[in-house]
């Protein structure tokens, strides 16, 4: 996983400073996402979760022309070892999956979103918005970060938070003239800016 960011502890960098490799081996530069609303989500590419992938594709098709970008980071950190055997998921499995199911939003190469070898984008996002009780750990597949047009993390949403509920937040960031509040007291855990 490639990154221009030399230090994760330097406060001067932003999401737009990152470059990563996508599932086709091309460099994906986050600087091209300036002035966009961005939804970043960690996914898994097994058929049991196809419905969630298709929901992301539907959301992308609906709002991409208005400035929404969905960036997916495939990970196998939350699956059983039998499902993540290299013989089961070869290096080209992500790109093959995207082609097979006509996934058109950007999907990055397979990576880690937790731990010492986590991709830098996730280290950055988790530092911006912590999870329950101040924990940074990604708990499961399909946890989501919503980024506003200024590149700031507007909200962090659990795997259980449905996309049809999240759509309201996305529309607000895309279409509201004034900058919306990033925190909703009714839906947030009192310890963090984390949506359940």
Question: How would you describe what is shown here?
Answer:
With 196 residues, this protein is α/β, with parallel strands linked by helices. It has a single domain (35-195), classed as 3-Layer(aba) Sandwich (Glutaredoxin), CATH 3.40.30. Helix content is 22%, strand content 16%. The protein is built from four helices and seven strands; from the N terminus they run βββαβααββαβ. It has helices at residues 50-63, 93-100, 120-128, 163-175; strands at residues 19-21, 27-29, 37-43, 68-74, 144-147, 153-157, 194-195. It has a five-stranded mixed beta sheet with strand order 4-3-5-6-7, covered by helices on one side. The longest helix is centred in the first third of the chain and has 14 residues, at 50-63. GO terms for molecular function: glutathione peroxidase activity; phospholipid-hydroperoxide glutathione peroxidase activity. Keywords: Oxidoreductase, Peroxidase. One of its GO terms (cellular component) is peroxisomal matrix. Pfam families: GSHPx. This is Glutathione peroxidase.
What are the key terms here?
alpha/beta; five-stranded mixed beta sheet; two-stranded antiparallel sheet; 16% strand; Glutathione_peroxidase; 196 residues; Glutathione peroxidase; Glutaredoxin
Topology, element by element:
Blueprint: E1 19-21, E2 27-29, E3 37-43, H1 50-63, E4 68-74, H2 93-100, H3 120-128, E5 144-147, E6 153-157, H4 163-175, E7 194-195
Protein name: Glutathione peroxidase
InterPro entries: Glutathione_peroxidase (IPR000889), Thioredoxin-like_sf (IPR036249)
Family: Belongs to the glutathione peroxidase family.
